[in-house]
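Section: protein folds

Sequence with per-residue tokens
===
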Amino acid sequence: MSFTTKKLLRKFLIWKYKHISERQFVYVLSILVGFLAGMGTVVLKNLTHYIRLLFELDFFNNYQNSLYFIFPIIGLLLVYIIKQTWLKKHIGHGISSTLYAISKLNGIIPRYNIFAALITAPLTAGFGGSVGLQGPAVSVGSALGSNAARLFHMNTKTRMLLIGCAVAGAMASMFKAPIAAIIFAIEIFSLDIAFTSLVPLLLASVSAVVTSYLFLGTDVLLRFELTDKFEVNDIAFYVLLALVTGLASVYFSKVFFGITNFFKQFKSRALRLLVGGLAIGTMLYFIPPLYGEGYGIMNNLLKGDHLAAIGNTPFNLDLSNIWIVIGLLMGIGIFKAIAMTTTFGAGGVGGVFIPTLVMGNVLGNVFAKIINNIGLDFHVSESNFTLIGMTGLMAGVLHAPLTAIFLIAEITGGYELFVPLMIVSAISFAITKYYVSHSIYTLKLAQRGELMTHDKDQNVLMVLDIDKVIETNFIVLKPEMKLGDILKKAVAKSSRNHFPVVNDAHEFLGVIRLDDIRHMMFDADLYDKVEASSLMHADAGIIDYDEDSMQDIMDNFKASGAWNLPVIKDGKYYGYISKSKLLTAYRRQLIKFTK
């Protein structure tokens, strides 16, 4: 930032403090952040669209099937080159990275996140990577929200709120669904739903939707017209669909974690690109509908055109046979999760939101087709089940049942299907939650104790910085030290009443407390006879700096009843944490959360 810009900003901030209240300025910023998040989404969608126009050139028409294999590899290679030569930074999954920034970085997101996903995600999806753009849109928007808050010197709580506004804005702009966007921000990001937080979310969501309409027109991603009403007699089938989507959500999540762990075995990014690129290219060659995000599949199945959804395949199959069609659609649904995660494993950048919808869309359509063609004289609405299948997968995979209900209802106008939407969403979520404790977005964060939730006490503990409560100004003793040296070099020079004992490798051996030597402090005959090794004893518990979360530390204090516990870092003694200092830090942080 130039000197002139800094000077202008300083003048503006002074004027703002004099003439605009903090709440009013937050409202203004929420509108700005919504607009920026909307613009980020517009740019993402347009860049991806223009890259895909390559496929429509006459030159490529004769090589369509071959390009399904080649193009994704080219896109992944371009992303690899950009990461290695220009960005030189890790680009995580947008929503997971944002959740981590909220819980552990006080909402501070690096500026490079603004343009990193903006460039790499369109290359991944535009060249055929089987991923979505919602995650990158959230990444771009949240980075804009975070840096806007920092630019105008907003506090941590406001910065978190503006990130939530950006998330809602990205969602609203992508789907033109402002209500679902707010619910998504609250449900996934565990935002405070007090009135003071709700108004900025509303303003940001509306601002982003208006931005999307201005630049993209009235066209929507999913086009659906409700032609078949909800039939009470179909409730049993909806319950059965919920069971199927719940199990499919478990499959989707297990595949994601399994393939992700497989690619982590490769230390070389180039090797990941080679293995993943060949795998995704092969899948797209044999199953072309897996190419890109998958909006074509969803829209074609919603309007009942399964032949258009399947498209051209390298197999010479009789598509007039409904069971062959069902088999092909099942293949698309099963391999969508595999293709998506393989794209990530190869180094691609994208999101899981849209692939989840695609799998649910296909699964719901297949379920309805099977019901209608098993010869038992049943008939259900294929379009309605196709739509509601999306809800089941979203509720299960993303662990976001409310978002699933309102998003599908809002973007399709299917409010008359609210009852089956609720049934399928609730059951699918319950089944998935039983087998997979957290969503794709949050599992790794939860395992590390870094996940923000609606539990305020847990959130306060999570954002506490362990380095700020560790005390290192203790005089350490060696096991061979004599009592006289302990009194002269430690006790006389310290205001502490306990002294850690370490060996030459600085490994923690035990502790000597003042009470342990008080009865012999004035017996000079023992000064040269008694060593520290005979006086020290094990502490009530030990804190591992690298492994223990703040919740673990608090539990350790509770279980041990101790007031001070030693901290070990990399296997060596590091310092002590006192219960009083930890509780003081906790109270201060709690005040920030409840202001």
Remarks:
- Residues 22-52 form the longest helix (31 residues).
- The two ends are 32 Å apart (CA to CA).
- Strands lie at 470-471, 498-502, 508-513, 543-544, 564-569, 572-578.
- The mean pLDDT is 82.
